[in-house]
Design a protein that fits this description.
Number of helices: 5
Distance between the termini: 27 Å
Radius of gyration: 16 Å
Order of helices and strands: HEEEHEEHEHEEEEH
Helix content: 25-40%
Number of domains: 2
Structural class: alpha+beta
Amino acid sequence: MGRTIVNSAMRTLNMEPEISVFKSRAGTFTLEAYFGKVRMAGFTGTLIANLEAGNMWLAEAEKTAVKRENAQNGAMKIILSSVNYRSAMLMTITALTYIPSVNLDADMVKGRFGEPVEKITLNDNSERWLYPDKGLLVAINKNGKEVFEYVRPADFEKIAQPLARE
């Protein structure tokens, strides 16, 4: 991560991603490559890559969008023009989100990654397990799917910092 571009990931996974810009209600942009269902570490799950894009590129992508759709979380999904799509294929992956198709219990996660450095309890059903040395944050959900967020270990604070405010 931090060096791999989308095009390389596409060749490795043998699947072309859907790449879109998302604009939050607050006006912040993210650029994501949605690979869909992939098989990793013996599990099938959904893989989404966050991409590094400058503000000028994101603003241009919004202006030249082919289509806009409302996303489930209230954000605006911006469908890229073919020119911007090709440009995004050369952008660096900064983070990965992996959502296994099957529910994993806490013991399975602990068996695979070890004891987390820190556990943050959000409510009775949800915890965040932090593995800064691995660049991994795991959302443990008793009533839903687990979510794995990967970044370079040097960038771990970027995904852990919002938890300090919750």
